[in-house]
Structures are given as structure tokens and as C-alpha cells.
Design goal:
By secondary structure, this protein is mostly helical. It has 13 helices and no strands. Helix 3 packs antiparallel against helix 4, helix 7 packs antiparallel against helix 13 and helix 9 packs antiparallel against helix 10. It is globular and about 45 Å long.
Length: about 300
């Protein structure tokens, strides 16, 4: 089953006529917002219990998205076509990101991004098995090349399997499952509505942890929670939007660019310097992403 051909708003459609190129561009923008989210969460998790941070992040997300939806479409705009599917996704999402936020205390953002690149293996396989997507050879090749780039990046540090690495490896299949369900539900609800229900369910699931680990935040920490809410909401809005334009397996190589943003954020905020292998691996990853983007644009252009 191919992604539904649902156009972006008119302004972006005129700026970027190709649906395929729009899908890739939107996915790249989502990666920038997710990097901002991860940086905010990492800073908070260094000062507060990670599971409390998880809860606060989703509460902040609700504060961001609820007024927007109510302003645009009123209370009726919150109705979903498939609440069960949103709840099913919430189980994957809560488990995956509960582990993710615990791992962020142990690992640099670039290492987390690199380990997260095993996700496309699960997503692409799941898209073929459960969503009926036809995964072409060029997509498998891009995933394989990007995965090789990830191995180049983490090779020097993989000898020390600290708890954060194990948490990440457990979180990735769960997050892949969440992304697959997001792809399915994105064909039924608008992106903002998908993000709204994801946020509501995650906030409810994390509430017991938030209350158990309660810690009164300072003004600076409240600011970071607000930033996490904005970055996370926009990131999920854009990635859900891209799912409406392209197959999820086609979009996976784009996530590899996140290693570049994560490495830059590590240096800018925490003064950590990436070694040569990080840049070599990142170059391989960007090459793989560029290859898949070009070939998908050519293929999409023939269909449009």
C-alpha cells in the first residue's frame, strides 16, 4: 500500500512542485526539531529524574498543541477516526521513549543518533511485512550504506557497552513500531490530530512516573520543558506530514542526517569534540541519503 497522495499546503506545493522532494524536505526539517528536543531533554535529565522529564515533556506538548487545534477547528477538531490505533501506538511510544530518556543521561546525542540508525532496519522490514509497502532495492541499498556509516561512527566506542547503549538497543524496535503505526494512522487523521492524540496518550501513560518522581522545576527548567514541548510538537507534526506524502521506508535514510545535527549540538552545548570517524561515518550517511533522495525524486517525477 503506497502512501496516499495528499498534497502539502498550497504555498509549499508551489515552492516545491515535486511531492517526493517535499516529503524529503519536510522530513529533514523534522530532524532539526527532534535534535532540539533531544538537547532540551538531555539538559533536563542531567538535573531531574528522566521519567519525570518524560512526563513534563508531554505535558508541555499538550500546552503547545491543544490551543492550536482548538483555535483552528474547535472541540470537534479533536475527534479521531481510530482511537484504538492511537492507543496501540501509545504503548510502543511510551515504552520506547521511556528507555530513550533514561539512555540520554548516559550517552552523547551523536552516539544516540548513531545507535538510532538501526531503527530503519526494523521500520523498513515492518513496512514490508505489515503495511504492504513494496521496498525497492535502492531503498535497501541506502539503508545498508547508512547503517555501514553508523558502524564507522560507533566503532571506537562500542567496546564499552554501558547501560545507555543497552537501553537504546531495547528502545529502537519499540520506536520503530510506533513509527509504523504512525504511518498507518496518518492516512486517516491529519498530522496535527495524530500528534495531539500521541501527546495525550503519552502524557497519560507517563503520569504515574511523573507523580512518583515529582520534583518542582525551577524557572530555567520550565523554560527547557517549554522548549521541549515546542520542538517535539513541531518535529512530530513535520514527520507525520512527510508520512502522508511518501512511504515510510523511503523516508528512513533521511534520518541519518540527524547525526550531523546531533554532533554539532554536542559541541555547541557541551563542548564535546567528535573524532574523525564521526565525520567519516556522517559523510557516508549523507551520501546514502542524497542517493535515495535523488532516485526517489526521479521516480516520483515520472509518476506525477
Amino acid at each position: 500500500m503506497s502512501a496516499p497522495a495528499i498534497d502539502a499546503p498550497d504555498a509549499l506545493s508551489r515552492l516545491i512542485p515535486s511531492r517526493v522532494v517535499r516529503g524529503f524536505a519536510i522530513a529533514v526539517v523534522s530532524g532539526l526539531f527532534f535534535t532540539g528536543l533531544n538537547a532540551s531533554v538531555k539538559e533536563l535529565a542531567g538535573e531531574m529524574p528522566p521519567l519525570f522529564v518524560s512526563w513534563g515533556r508531554w505535558i508541555a506538548g499538550l500546552v503547545v498543541i491543544v490551543p492550536i487545534l482548538l483555535w483552528r477547528s474547535g472541540i470537534r477538531g479533536l475527534a479521531t477516526r481510530d482511537l484504538k490505533l492511537h492507543c496501540f501506538r501509545g504503548l510502543f511510544h511510551t515504552g520506547g521513549y521511556g528507555l530513550w530518556y533514561e539512555a540520554v543521561v548516559w550517552l552523547p546525542l551523536a552516539t544516540m543518533a548513531a545507535l538510532g540508525f538501526t531503527g530503519p532496519i526494523f521500520v523498513t522490514l515492518g513496512a514490508a511485512l505489515f503495511l504492504g509497502e513494496r521496498v525497492q532495492a535502492r531503498r535497501w541499498l541506502a539503508v545498508a550504506v547508512g547503517f555501514a556509516g553508523m558502524l564507522v561512527i560507533v566503532r571506537p566506542g562500542m567496546t564499552d557497552m554501558n547501560p545507555g547503549i543497552w537501553m537504546m538497543l531495547a528502545a529502537i524496535p519499540l520506536i520503530a513500531g510506533s513509527n509504523l503505526v504512525a504511518k498507518a494512522v496518518s492516512g486517516r487523521d491529519l498530522p496535527a490530530l495524530v500528534v495531539f492524540w500521541q501527546t495525550v496518550i503519552a502524557a497519560l501513560c507517563f503520569t504515574p512516573f511523573g507523580l512518583w518522581f515529582w520534583q518542582t522545576p525551577t524557572l530555567a527548567q520550565l523554560g527547557l520543558f517549554a522548549a521541549a514541548g515546542v520542538f517535539g510538537t513541531l518535529g512530530y507534526f513535520f514527520i507525520t506530514w512527510s508520512y502522508r506524502l511518501l512511504d515510510i521506508s523511503a523516508l528512513q535514510p533521511v534520518s541519518y542526517i540527524g547525526i550531523v545535527w546531533a554532533a554539532l549540538m554536542d559541541v555547541a552545548l557541551w563542548g564535546k569534540t567528535s573524532d574523525l570517524w564521526t565525520f567519516v561515518g556522517a559523510a557516508i550517511i549523507v551520501a546514502a541519503t542524497s542517493m535515495i533522495a535523488h532516485r526517489e525524486a526521479v521516480a516520483g517525477g515520472k509518476k506525477e
